[in-house]
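User: Some background: our group keeps a shared notebook of sequences we're curious about, and every so often someone picks one and asks for a predicted structure to add to the entry. Today it's my turn. The entry only has the sequence so far, pasted here. Could you supply the structure so I can complete it?
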Amino acid sequence: MLRKRIGTAAITALTLAAASGCSWFEPEEEDLDFEAHEDQLTEMYNESIRLIEELDAAEARIVQTCLEEQGFTVHPPEEFTSWAEAERESFVDAPPYQWFMPTAEEAAYRGFWQWTVLDGAETYEDGEMHAAWEEYQAANGWGEPALEQEGTADFHSLDTEDQYDWYVAYAGDTWAAENHPDLGGPGRKTDASGSELYGNPPPEGCKLEMIEAVYGGLKGAENTEEAWTEWYFRPEQPMGDWSAMNERYEERTEDAEGDLLDCLSDRGRDGWEFFEGALWVNSYLHESGEGEHALSSHESSGTRWPDPPGDAPEADDFEGWLAFERDLAVDFAECGDESGFRGAAEHAWQQAQLRYYLDIEDDTYAWQDEMRAHLEQAQEVIGA
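Assistant: Of course. Here's the predicted structure to add to the notebook entry:
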């Protein structure tokens, strides 16, 4: 049987393509027009936040009205706090390089924020730098939401019996016994050895009344890992493939990583390795002795950073540690600019995020329509 021969040049080209990880059948992903989509996706993102907050507030009002009709006039803040994220000027999430690639100006002032876990951080320079850290957290949606729901201030000063009665009215006897055994009541069930058995009973009481009035009822799904039922009532917000998005980012930054590491090496900063698109500077600073834990870390990252230096500052030398951290941050920031890594990473993250949100755009708009319908129903319940 005759076989068609492939020329030597063609074989060589195929071999090189395979060795480089390229494929003639998988061309490099083209850039999308970020600016053309930014406004619409940002509005979509922020509208989702607004709908969550408005529905949270409507639910809280319905439940509190139910409780107050039974004589419960103060409420625990944590049960009526909206945990929605803050709205954004752009839909783009915090990038992987945020922790290890400050600007040169930021680096010279605040380093990598690892110093915030040291004793004396809150009072250094009359607390101005720590206030900047708190502002940074708030801007990124990392701070705790305010627990200032009307009528909540005195709840935890009530007698435990009164608190427990509130939880019974809120979500039923079984729910209260499971979630607040420390306040009294029958407590959790136990096995033959006396060990507590944990469960996840569905809510009853005022919370269930709200769920039935606004959402039509409670739904359950078996959690085989925990051997109990998970309860839900809101439509689930669309979530895309975050792992694929991160892989897309890492592929786009891979070529720029070596240039950054070379620049750091030229400055005497050898021993760094990337892990999942990031350099774990806070883990390095922690192991060098700066603080009891790493402010940002990854349990699977191994030790892809240099050995701690032998001349690190003493543990009680706050200013010494701050200077040590700032020096490292400045080298990272300047190398990010000089090597071109910062520009490549910013572009790669924009493109990865853009495709992620475009992939879930239609599903998100459909989910928003469902949320609006439930919000309208909740407002009718409040009006009635």
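Suggested note for the entry: Residues 34-68 form the longest helix (35 residues). The beta strands are 219-223, 228-232.
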